[in-house]
């Protein structure tokens, strides 16, 4: 599995860009997975549903399965948050794992920057940032892309990960 990350502040457009890139990768015949980190407490089940009730009652893991999809919810219950490496090991085999918002991980990543967010750029402090996608040109020697260039960004990522060779 190849791994490529996306870093940037909330509201910069990471999710929107990734959403545009995924169909381009799939059209290349690649199997794509994604790991997204969040600092928020979240739940994929809802109060009153069986899975929620079982988890609230104390289950460490609850799996919900159907003919369309399955999901596994694992409650940490005071365990430490798993590392990106541990989470990658849990994924089924695929060609490319896109990683959103693991800013401090030592993986190749694209910085997504929007000037209206008015936050400092990450690349000067992060040697793992391979390129930048922004709404305006920036002062850097790194490869730069406009946010509205998903096809060009997809080609860059495929070359960066070795999933597509030059020429």
TrEMBL record:
Gene3D superfamilies the UniProt entry points to: P-loop containing nucleotide triphosphate hydrolases
Any one GO molecular-function label of the UniProt entry: GTP binding
Residue ranges of domain Molybdopterin-guanine dinucleotide biosynthesis protein B (MobB) in the record: 3-135
GO biological process: Mo-molybdopterin cofactor biosynthetic process
Xref: Pfam families: MobB (PF03205)
Entries under SUPFAM superfamilies matching the protein: P-loop containing nucleoside triphosphate hydrolases
NCBIfam families tied to this protein: mobB
Name of this chain's protein: Molybdopterin-guanine dinucleotide biosynthesis protein MobB
Organism from which the protein derives: Sulfuricella denitrificans (strain DSM 22764 / NBRC 105220 / skB26)
Phylogenetic lineage: Bacteria, Pseudomonadati, Pseudomonadota, Betaproteobacteria, Nitrosomonadales
